[in-house]
Amino acid sequence: MSEAVLDWWEYHEGRRCALAAWHHHRQRAGGERPSFDGDEARDRLRGLAQQQWPGGQDTWTTGPTEADLDERTRRLIASGATAIFRATITAGGTSLVVDVLERTAQGSWCAVLLSTRYGLDRFLVEQAALTLHVLQAASIPVAGVHLVHVDADYRKGKGPIEPEAFLVRRSLTIRAARAKARVVSAMAVLTDIAAEAVPPDVPRGTHCRACTFTDRCVETLPADWTGRYPTEAGTSADVWLARGYERMGDVPADEPMGAPRRRARLASRTGRIVVDPALPQVLEACRPPVWYLDFECVWSLLPVFEGTAPAQHVPFLWSLHHVDEEGRLTHLDEIVAPGPDPRRRMAESLVEAVGAYHEPIVVYGDYEAERIGELAALFPDLAPALERIRGRIVDLLAVIRDHVYDLQFRGNFSLKAVGPVLAPGLTYRELAIRDGLTAARAYARLLYLPEVTPDDVETTLADLRAYCERDTLALVDVHRTLMNLAQGATMTAEGEERYPEVRV
């Protein structure tokens, strides 16, 4: 590859990892990289924002064939268009898409960047700087570079969302000019790297855990690779990697680290699951009879329901499993079909289901407690009952994070990470919906898409209920395993190591 022309995404990823930029560039050159357009939230935001430029013309009206987009943009500039949507420009060694190219009264152009975020950050300034560079390199007279982003203080009223109330516009022209030399220099380095036939030699580190290409770099490494140490304040695992400690157990015992990392280190050195001796006492707070609760919520950058904020999480489904004193398992749930605001029914039905009991309610993380708190604030008449329910919550995530470590967690304490380890018999594979983001998007489509049929609604709601039920069943199974593990511990309160055989 003799010459490389990078785009904004390759630069963005390259600032984190040059190897990621190299891979992304080859994907795009080979037509293999997934399009970042078509994201539902961004598409809806773009449609709303474009209302501010009546008569604007979109370069993608006849399809996003990249080879033609530059020429379409040039033709629209020459034709006297007042605003060009998704203007594509390649110059100065970079190809980028400008959300809106706005012609000024003087005939110059203002580049408008559209962001789904609530404010300004370093990458947006760098994007503005790169946009300024490319426009100038293409000999397009630039009046300024502006950012349009969502107003975090917006609350939806009774009618449609008005772009002027929902969006905030601010100038980044001065910031972009100041950052341009630095950004262009960084882009030149990444361009040289992308042009090489051989990938760059980049040290593996904690940044690899959140990369698109994780499977190529670290998935084959041992489960106790040092980069998988649980995240906590203090020394970064990258420091230990730089010192040559490739596995958790290689890190010296006198290195400062918190209890979760100490358990991870012990698991690496022994090859066994590590259980803190305080686990039995902690689990006394949630012995059967006990409930297991999970919420599914919809969130949309463009709020749907009156009084809601951008991307506010609105519960539409809960699932409850119950284990009685004899170990019998029962299940119930509540789902609100798409239409009116579901929050009142969610709150009332939860109070009806568990409000009269005093038994503990097991959840995973603080998500359910936060949603219940929001419902209590919204409905004062239900607040006392909802606050009592919230007071009964026991967070199983905190229990595991603070008392258990298995190498197969790979430094991740999410339910999707610990579930297959502590409850290996449970699977999501046969479900149509297998994660919370997909669940939220499925429900959002029922709210937004006009062509949804009654059969679509029925099928989707059934899929959502099946997924949420599986999540609470996972809580049941993980809790049972924890109670089994509590029968023996691998570290005494004094730090003495002992290793009972524990069947998981």
Topology of this structure?
Elements: E1 6-7, H1 8-16, H2 18-29, H3 40-49, E2 57-58, H4 66-79, E3 83-91, E4 94-103, E5 109-114, H5 122-137, E6 142-150, H6 163-166, E7 167-171, H7 173-195, H8 214-217, H9 237-242, H10 259-270, E8 274-275, H11 279-283, E9 290-298, E10 314-323, E11 329-335, H12 343-354, E12 361-363, H13 367-378, H14 383-391, E13 393-395, H15 396-403, E14 404-405, H16 415-422, H17 436-448, H18 454-485
Parallel strand pairs: 1-4, 2-3, 5-6, 9-12, 12-13
Antiparallel strand pairs: 3-4, 4-5, 6-7, 8-14, 9-10, 10-11
Helix pairs in contact: 1-2, 2-7, 5-7, 13-14, 16-18, 17-18
Quick summary of this structure?
The protein is an alpha/beta fold.
CATH class of the largest domain: Alpha Beta
The number of domains is 3
Oligomer: single chain
Shape: globular
How much β-strand is present in the residues?
15-25%
Question: Mean of the pLDDT scores?
Answer: 91
Corresponding CATH architecture of the largest domain:
2-Layer Sandwich
CATH superfamily of the largest domain: Ribonuclease H-like superfamily/Ribonuclease H
Describe this structure in words.
It is a single chain. This protein folds into three domains: 190 residues, no CATH class; 55 residues, no CATH class; 205 residues, Ribonuclease H-like superfamily/Ribonuclease H (Nucleotidyltransferase, domain 5, 2-Layer Sandwich). The strands form three sheets. Strands 1, 2, 3, 4, 5, 6 and 7 form a seven-stranded mixed β-sheet that branches. A hairpin with a 5-residue loop joins strand 10 and strand 11. It has 18 helices and 14 strands. It is globular. Helix 1 packs antiparallel against helix 2 and helix 2 crosses helix 7. It is α/β, with parallel strands linked by helices and 504 residues long. The two termini are 52 Å apart. The C terminus is likely disordered. Helix content is 41%, strand content 16%.
